[in-house]
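Quality-control log, excerpt.
Job 1 of 2 completed; input and output follow.
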Amino acid sequence: MPDRTSREIHLAARPVGWPTEETFALKEEQISAPADGEVLVRNLVMSVDPYMRGRMNDAKSYVPPFAVGEVLDGGAVGVVLESRSDDLAPGDTVLHGMGWRDLALGEASRFRKVDSDVAAPSDYLGVLGLTGFTAYVGLLDIAAMTSGDAVFVSGAAGAVGGMVGQFARLRGASRVIGSAGSAEKVAFLTERLGFDAAFNYHDGPVRDQLRAAAPDGIDVYFDNVGGEHLEAALTALRPHGRVAMCGAVAQYNDTTPPAAPRNLALVIGKRLTVRGFIVGDHSQRMDDFVREVNDWRRDGRLVEEETVVDGLENAPAAFLGLLRGDNMGKMIVRISNGSGG
């Protein structure tokens, strides 16, 4: 009988403020054999993402909170080990939402077959996954970016932000500006990703640095950070500018209300559009996204940067590092090399 012992990362306690290693617990579980219509998958790689911090709170949101004492979940790619479904066979590579564990068991409908010859498994979590799709939908549909627009991206050296900046450049933006948290990341944005300008938000007020980087203002702001960045962008936006609100990572661990933005009245006078979005609402755009982004990938016009952490047991440390901004590009946890059964 095959070994179906699986390590899992459970939520040990709800964090107050910043999570710690004690927020998580590594458990070992015995997984049953697949029933009719089910498959058993060995995970190869998994994603850690900022939105997971919100799910650690016991609060109503667009996605249910994690349960204390239960395994976490999130995007993952793995290989089918056993199948009792006509739709998937052993050896198939699949994308699914049951990360934070070695083995994933579930109905075959919860797993989508992907082509490992077209892209590496981690690409289906990054540039060809929800990361890239979030950047694509947020920039082009929510912020309605068009050729000639000046675009500002906060948290630009992260997974989504880096894609937003590159997509904007490839779609004809007149100027692409990014903020990041270190000199190394600023250099990465301008030297590797093709941003026209970038600044370290630790070096001074965001409002002043954005004004210097975009003296003529901006048309689009893609917000991954919130707070001071959003306040600065509202000042810099030209009339009829657009904001796509994707995240507010600067506030996820705060225990008090944010001090900014204090200038929301500018939305009225400038006739700005400020719109939040959840990428899962836009599945009808997936085919367009895959087609256009794959063209850019094949032509070598996209930089796909990853920060890889090895070992499921190190997934909590990878997640904490993500919240601190330790990553360059997409943060990936490599669980397995695919060997073994």
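Job 2 of 2 completed; input and output follow.
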Amino acid sequence: MTKSFSGILIFTVAIILVFVYIGEVLTKISGQRAGPADVITGVSPEAGETVFWGRGKCHTCHSIGNRGSAIRAPNLGGTGPLNLPIGARAERRAKERQEQGESGMSATDYLVESIADPSAYVVEGFKNEMPLPHRPPINLKAEEIRAVITYLQSLGGEVDAAAIKLPPAITAARATVVEEWKPLVPVDVEVGKEIFFDPESNAACAKCHKVGEKGGEVGPELTALAGTRTFDFIIKSILDPNAEIASGFEATLIVTKDGRYLTGIVKKEDASTVYLADKEGTIEKVPKTEIEEIAPQETSMMPGNFKEILTIDEFYNLMAFLLTLK
């Protein structure tokens, strides 16, 4: 099939509706089947640490100190917001929430809210984009979430498992039986992998995205994509990359005093220089003394024409590979 992907938009929507009908997507990517290293017993900081860095995949967005990835979400160590580790920071955040009308909120209550209802309070400078860990594809059990909270408490705070009161949305949840993806055309994961990494392919995703140790860093790392994001989220990110731009990957326009227009992602900034990554991943060091104007952009650096340039076969093979990334 070599038909332009624009001709299957309605077809794609129909497929998404099928997935809604059969429930959430992807058995193998849902995190339901924990490996031996991910099995926890009881509620403790040690068990929570295992979940945080393992099945919960919290580290794909958060760091603790220099470990993990703190681009999309706050660093939970002492170098994060307020320069306090999350166990101590939670005390300050709870007071802020009390001032906002959440009377009686404790540090533990804040940690629970941050996981159970992350949209209730979004840290300044970040976006409301955290997935619910008790829902697919992460699908953590209530015991695992309690363990993670004790781990967060231990980072500068007091561990008190008895104080953890999870909402009914978590305690009443049952492990979701997730259907395996059944594409309506033949797919080949290896072909999809080649499309992803080949710089000459119509997708050439690896120019900007990293999987494991391979690929670029212009866009978000995708190593655990299907383990943290739903099928329809992945579809939407490809078809409409401007709909939700991940924190830390917003495009910025710099106009220099000599009339140059530079667009890219600010990777680093110090007192004298802005380090701007273009769509090829090349870093340009722009002295602040040469900048006339700097402004955030509302469009993603990711191309928005994949529905026109990918064939049906290319799209489905690429999706087949993406859905192995857990």
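Post-run check on job 2. The longest helix spans residues 9-22.
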